[in-house]
Specification:
The chain is an alpha/beta fold. The protein is globular. Helix 8 (177-189) links the parallel strand 7 (168-172) and strand 8. It is built from 13 helices and eight strands.
């Protein structure tokens, strides 16, 4: 099965993110191959907000370079890939991968660790996932406040996770904290494959409701979530919209410059004279 890792189908670069050209089921299969390989690694479910953070934070570009896989957890990136003429097959949402990977883990006997979220949520999420997949092995749960941990407490957290020997480590620390933490500690955690999965624990326990399926399919999940949590999410989505506009203008200008560099240079000189 390890040889299949060399059959990676390719990547599409959208806003500096090298996104895997994998559908949901293919992603689950690929993650299983990573588990079977047995080498500690992590992958990223990148939504529009993460793309914007990557532009702002140079550390994330190194995290992305080290990731085994980056999938498009956002319809804007799927739509934009189509405009580029290199369409991604579909959105691969982290909130959906949690269920599919747990189903695969239950089938194959992989051990799962749930890390993060608010107090009690990871434990309840583990219970509900076990109800859904009776053969699922939960290696452990923890909900630390990373910002409040002393160095000794942080070391004990890593040791506890390592002692549990998880095959899959789901992390809910938020963006970009979860991705940065996974990348920094990947080699010492003892987990074969880790991934930051945002609010997925809250979705599993029903604490936060996902948008209806029809809204997810047409890319309006953000609108539903904004309606549910306007104070927290509206500023974020406004910033995301500005980011899309800025990237679209940049790419359009780059395409024009590539096709007609002399006309662009002439227009810039005319603008400078008018100023």
């Amino acid at each position: 099965m390890n040889d299949a890792l060399h059959q990676f189908p390719g990547k599409v670069r959208v806003w500096r993110l090298p996104l895997a050209t994998l559908a949901h089921d293919q992603t689950v299969d690929y993650v299983e191959r990573l588990v079977c390989r047995g080498k500690p690694t992590f992958f990223i479910t990148a939504n529009l907000h993460y793309a914007m953070l990557t532009h702002r934070d140079a550390r994330l570009r190194e995290v992305n370079r080290r990731a085994a896989l980056i999938v498009a957890d956002g319809m804007p990136m799927v739509w934009y890939s189509r405009l580029l003429g290199q369409p991604l097959p579909e959105r691969v949402a982290g909130a959906d991968l949690v269920y599919s990977l747990c189903a695969r883990a239950a089938e194959r006997g992989y051990r799962v660790f749930l890390l993060g979220g608010t107090a009690g949520v990871a434990v309840e999420a583990a219970r509900r996932l076990c109800d859904m997949y009776p053969k699922l092995q939960i290696a452990g749960t923890a909900a630390p406040d990373l910002d409040q941990l002393s160095p000794g407490e942080h070391d004990r957290l890593i040791a506890d996770i390592r002692d549990c020997r998880p095959d899959l480590l789901f992390v809910a620390f938020g963006q970009p904290k979860g991705e940065l933490w996974l990348a920094e500690h990947c080699d010492v955690l003892g987990a074969t494959v880790g991934v930051q999965i945002g609010a997925s624990f809250d979705f599993v326990v029903g604490r936060t409701r996902r948008a209806p399926v029809w809204m997810q399919r047409i890319g309006l999940e953000w609108l539903y979530r904004t309606w549910r949590e306007p104070r927290r999410l509206l500023p974020r989505y406004v910033a995301n919209a500005r980011f899309i506009l800025r990237m679209a203008c940049r790419d359009a200008f780059a395409a024009l410059l590539k096709r007609r560099p002399h006309r662009v240079a002439q227009a810039l000189r005319s603008a400078e004279k008018q100023c």
